[in-house]
């Protein structure tokens, strides 16, 4: 068993120490699949930016695509930060400042450099050559390429590296306590946390609306209140052993609340948007009341989903199969290389005589399977397996 302590796997934790945390690995697998599908949905119609798009115009397909990416965005990247942070304090205490910092620079910094200087221009060339039809060689394309600093999907890795280095600075000054058993937050505390996060998100989006990107690192600062808060929550959960303090009953409560936010509140919010003739930009920020509505929906939904999954997966999906072990080991590689697989497949599918909405049903699953297959091969390569 190899367990995450960031998004990469921690290779030196004994199986006896991690046998009770298979459910964390299972969550990591599910979240990684969601990342691939999220970008596949954007490719074929959902709102969002991506290297290559082939958008459907059918409303019957666009609505579920939009719901899927909206719900995803509310929690899946924040959840990655939580899982990463959950193992940060223990790793820091075990390794010390120098070794912990060197480990993070190696396992997060090298993928950033690889993606920016090797993979990113390849991805751009595939689209330029095979989707846009410019018949030039790769070397000719590189001679005019100017987007060398581009972290793409690895903005998360860049943010995680930044958060980790800040944690090192704090941990060097404030002595961390050993993990202890503490009372898990009550349902009311979690709800109040989500409410506060919704307000904070609305305030930040007055200046940094959704879609505003800090270049060249790719940070959408409008989402960072959640990422920062959840990273801190992950460290606190680890230090106070919160994950063992939640009951299945609490998990079911938050599953119902999440379902209510998606199935009831989201349609109501959409009706309000349409009836008031509000634009997407109104929902994204700049102080509009619609932005407050959306920010609160997003944070309540995301926190409820994260809490429900953390609890219910522990009780319902605590074991791991041989395939699950392979997929868990490959997850970080999938995160890095899935754009290559997805873009290649979607470009190959340009000429298929069908609506893009139907292409999603084929390309999406193939992209997931192909990304895990590619990564499972790469992690067997000496040297590469020390990074991913």
Distance N to C terminus: 15 Å
Radius of gyration: 21 Å
Strand order of the biggest β-sheet: 1-2
What proportion of the residues is helical, as a percent range? Answer: over 70%
Strand content: under 5%
Report the sheet with the most strands, covering strand number, pairing sense and barrel closure: 2 strands, antiparallel
The SSE order reads EEHHHHHHHHHHHHH
Arithmetic mean pLDDT: 91
How would you classify the helix and strand content by structural class?
A: mainly alpha
Give an account of the 3D structure.
- The chain is mainly α and 388 residues long.
- The protein has a domain at 177-222 and 244-317.
- It is 70% helix and 1% strand.
- It contains 13 helices and two strands.
- It has helices at residues 15-18, 22-44, 59-86, 88-131, 138-143, 155-173, 187-207, 224-240, 248-275, 280-284, 289-316, 322-348, 356-378; strands spanning 3-4, 9-10.
- It has a two-stranded antiparallel sheet with strand order 1-2.
- Mean pLDDT is 91; it is low at 1-6 and 9-19.
């Amino acid at each position: 068993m190899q367990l995450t302590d960031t998004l990469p796997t921690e290779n030196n934790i004994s199986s006896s120490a991690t046998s009770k945390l298979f459910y964390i690995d299972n969550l990591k697998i599910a979240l990684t699949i969601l990342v691939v599908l999220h970008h596949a949905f954007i490719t074929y119609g959902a709102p969002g930016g991506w290297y290559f798009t082939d958008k459907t115009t059918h409303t019957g397909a666009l609505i579920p695509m939009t719901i899927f990416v909206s719900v995803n965005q509310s929690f899946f990247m924040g959840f990655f930060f939580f899982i990463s942070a959950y193992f940060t304090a223990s790793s820091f205490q075990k390794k010390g400042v120098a070794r912990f910092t060197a480990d993070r620079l190696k396992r997060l910094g090298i993928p950033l450099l690889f993606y920016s200087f090797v993979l990113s221009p390849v991805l751009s060339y595939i689209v330029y050559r095979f989707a846009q039809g410019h018949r030039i060689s790769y070397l000719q394309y590189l001679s005019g390429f100017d987007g060398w600093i581009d972290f793409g999907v690895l903005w998360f890795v860049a943010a995680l590296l930044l958060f980790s280095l800040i944690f090192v600075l704090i941990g060097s000054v404030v002595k961390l306590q050993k993990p202890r058993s503490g009372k898990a937050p009550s349902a009311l505390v979690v709800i109040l946390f989500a409410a506060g996060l919704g307000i904070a998100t609305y305030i930040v989006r007055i200046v940094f609306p959704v879609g505003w990107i800090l270049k060249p690192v790719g940070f959408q600062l409008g989402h960072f209140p959640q990422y920062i808060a959840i990273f801190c929550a992950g460290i606190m959960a680890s230090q106070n052993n919160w994950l063992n303090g939640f009951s299945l009953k609490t998990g079911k409560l938050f599953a119902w609340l999440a379902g209510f936010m998606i199935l009831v509140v989201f349609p109501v919010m959409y009706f309000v948007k349409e009836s008031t003739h509000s634009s997407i930009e109104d929902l994204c920020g700049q102080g509009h009341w619609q932005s407050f509505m959306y920010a609160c929906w997003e944070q309540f939904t995301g926190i409820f989903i994260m809490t429900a999954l953390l609890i219910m997966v522990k009780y319902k999906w605590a074991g791991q199969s041989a395939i699950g072990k392979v997929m868990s080991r490959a997850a970080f590689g999938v995160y890095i290389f899935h754009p290559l697989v997805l873009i290649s497949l979607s470009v190959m599918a340009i000429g298929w005589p069908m609506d893009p909405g139907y292409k999603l049903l084929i390309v999406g699953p193939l992209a997931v399977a192909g990304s895990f297959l590619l990564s499972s091969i790469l992690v067997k390569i000496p040297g590469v397996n020390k990074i991913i």
